[in-house]
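Tokens as discussed.
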């Protein structure tokens, strides 16, 4: 009989300590009258089976045999592992989740007498709250709004655990397991998204490359046009300068010719030069077999021929006159040139034509030439 009573006492004490351990309570020490409560602990004292007071850390006194230490509550923060559970999202996807809940005892009296097996109650409440919150959102939002989901679970748990004297600090979803088909679909979606981004980046690179090439071509064309414009401007400036200088040289030549004409016998010299150029031009035309000469006076050919012959004879006679004025070899004395009052114009024999016209006698350009008045020799002149 004594053994049975001892067995019942030991079993009852073991069960009590097990329940106290699950209720975040530590092993209760025996009341020896003088008690030292450790820091971050709270001892619940019962006197004659009724709640009497809560001992705080430090030195405390109790009456042995009358006062009993019923519960020892830890005021430290405790982490409770929430086991795996299944939850269905709003788009009918089954998920398997687990997490960790962090809490601490805020009121030792309520934690001791408000609920039995407080950790079990908190675990069940956390699972049901998480299942309820998961059912309100879709699968994509589970990953996007994970932090918001944790805060929502903590808010619901804190409100429900307040009558138990327990404060829920935070909740963290640890693992989220998806069905295999959902994983494969998400993997394909991720790969498609990456291919899309790669294609977008490639197209953007091609666009930037095309823009750069167009900008380079535009710049090169602008520079080429600028160079061409400068070249044309320089060429036009050079041509204008050349024309200006040619005009200046011609003007200077005309001025010199005009000044020479104003001198003595200048007009005769001009007439002689014109006659020489006229004869040279006609002689050049005669050398070309494919050249046809059209006279300016097609109705008076005899006049044109007589005019050309008169010019030739006048030039020839002028050369003989210059040769006759050369100095003698023996005495070295200079002989005076033959003085003429005026060179007689050559007379061509008259030729009768069908129309009965008599050919005109054309004066040579040198008809008006007169010998110099001085007695100097032609060589000195």
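Sequence:
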């Amino acid at each position: 009989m004594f053994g049975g009573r001892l067995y019942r006492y030991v079993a009852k004490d073991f069960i009590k300590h097990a329940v106290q351990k699950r209720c975040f309570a530590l092993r209760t020490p025996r009341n020896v009258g003088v008690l030292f409560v450790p820091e971050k602990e709270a001892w619940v004292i019962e006197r004659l089976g009724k709640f009497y007071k809560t001992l705080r850390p430090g030195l405390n006194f109790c009456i042995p045999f009358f006062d009993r230490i019923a519960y020892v509550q830890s005021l430290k923060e405790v982490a409770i592992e929430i086991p795996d559970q299944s939850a269905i999202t709003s788009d009918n996807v089954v998920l398997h989740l687990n997490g960790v809940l962090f809490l601490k005892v805020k009121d030792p009296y309520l934690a001791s007498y408000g609920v039995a097996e407080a950790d079990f109650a908190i675990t069940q409440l956390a699972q049901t709250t998480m299942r309820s919150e998961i059912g309100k959102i879709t699968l994509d939002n589970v990953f996007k709004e994970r932090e918001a989901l944790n805060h929502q679970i903590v808010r619901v748990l804190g409100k429900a655990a307040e009558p138990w004297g327990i404060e829920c600090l935070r909740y963290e979803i640890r693992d989220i397991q998806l069905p295999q088909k959902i994983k494969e679909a998400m993997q394909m979606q991720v790969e498609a998204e990456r291919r899309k981004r790669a294609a977008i980046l490639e197209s953007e690179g091609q666009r930037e490359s095309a823009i750069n090439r167009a900008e380079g071509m535009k710049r090169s064309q602008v520079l080429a046009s600028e160079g061409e414009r400068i070249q044309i401007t320089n060429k036009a400036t050079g041509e204008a300068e050349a024309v200006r200088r040619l005009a200046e040289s011609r003007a200077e030549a005309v001025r010199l010719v005009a000044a020479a004409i104003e001198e003595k016998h200048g007009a005769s010299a001009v007439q002689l030069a014109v006659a020489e150029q006229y004869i040279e031009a006609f002689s050049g035309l005669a050398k070309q077999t494919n050249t046809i000469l059209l006279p300016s006076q097609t109705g008076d050919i005899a006049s044109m021929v007589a005019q050309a012959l008169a010019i030739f004879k006048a030039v020839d006679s002028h050369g003989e006159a210059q040769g006759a004025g050369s100095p003698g070899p023996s005495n070295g004395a200079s002989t005076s040139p033959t003085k003429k009052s005026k060179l007689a114009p050559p007379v061509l024999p008259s030729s009768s034509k069908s129309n009965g016209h008599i050919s005109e006698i054309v004066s040579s350009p040198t008809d008006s030439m007169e010998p110099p008045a001085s007695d100097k020799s032609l060589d000195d002149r």
